[in-house]
Amino acid sequence: MWRELQPIGRHPGSGGYRRFAWTGADRDCRDWFEEQARTRGLTYELDRNGNQWAWLGDPAAGDAVVTGSHLDSVPDGGAFDGPLGVVSSFAALDELRSRNAEFAKPLAIVNFGDEEGARFGLACVGSRLAAGELTVEAARQLRDGDGVSLPQAMEAAGHDPDAIGADPERLARIGAFVELHVEQGRALDLSGDRVGIASAIWPHGRWRFDFRGEANHAGTTRLVDRRDPMLSYAETVLAARREAALAGAVATFGKIAVEPNGVNAIPSLVRGWLDSRAADQATLDTVVSGIEKAAREYADEHGVQLDVVRESFTPVVEFEHALRDEIARILGREKEADLKVPVLGTGAGHDAGILSGSIPTAMLFVRNPTGVSHSPAEYAAEDDCVAGVTALADVLEGLACT
Ligand code: GLV
Ligand code: MN
Ligand code: MN
Question: 181 CA distance to ligand 3 centroid (A)?
């Protein structure tokens, strides 16, 4: 499976993946998923929101156990964020079949569409739409950097955009959703464990800061006459770092657009996107309002106009304790009695977090020796990946089999 996925959307220069929603690379990943489903004799479904499902057993029977993740990527993403969960799901099913497991409940493997939000700016579009956490009206407004709307992109990829929307009947079929994911941190490396269980996801969001100044000649405009939005933006980046450090949170300006973007022109517009996350809502609010306050002061200083728009927000997720404890029990059985499977919080967003408001969800993390993620350097060792598959197979067997 890895060999087949390896070249899809891989940039020859960076070695990273560019698998953005509804592009050719995304289509190739989707074709691969459908092929994996069909070669295993699973029932393949593409839902109204572009999520793919592969069913073993009757989808309508209810109380299904579902596993999976996503196949799209951030710009120059690593090989594992998303695909590790999907590949491990198919491998875990193969493992259960080789154990001659008897399924008492339907099992499904899912590939959620547009998890990273790299193209349209909003993460987890497929699961948010299904859960009714993103309205159809708001989804229709989403546009990529070239002005292509989400419905236009869907239509160009052969998917009916008029069908999108909340899908409660589909979610009602599911009794538990377990997402396996590469760890995006070093907790397992430090504790010496191959696999962990998720406890919670930090609240997180994305804010767009538009600094508008005055375009002018870089050679002839005196410094005192400038209204340069780049200066207020640069100072705001430093303020973000300061506020986050003070609060024990994180804040990142990782994407920027500059107009007119000429080397010899003072910019008229600098648009920067802030991603900020914290362990609790009050801390996150403090960090973001601190950054915004500083940004306004810097903007005023330079005669620049500032608009701040919150583009997305995901509240704190505490994964369901009953399912988490059940998984810990299943995995604990495989270990010495006094060895517990580590339970970890994370600052990364996931479809399992979005769906946790609608159905019981849980996550397994697989050790990442450097903790690096959202980068071509993201890595998980082969035997840790195998341990992840075994753990997932044990969990699915415990939840779905007699
Ligand atoms: C998704 O990976 C996110 O946390 O941004
Ligand atoms: Mn990611
Ligand atoms: Mn992911």
Answer: 7
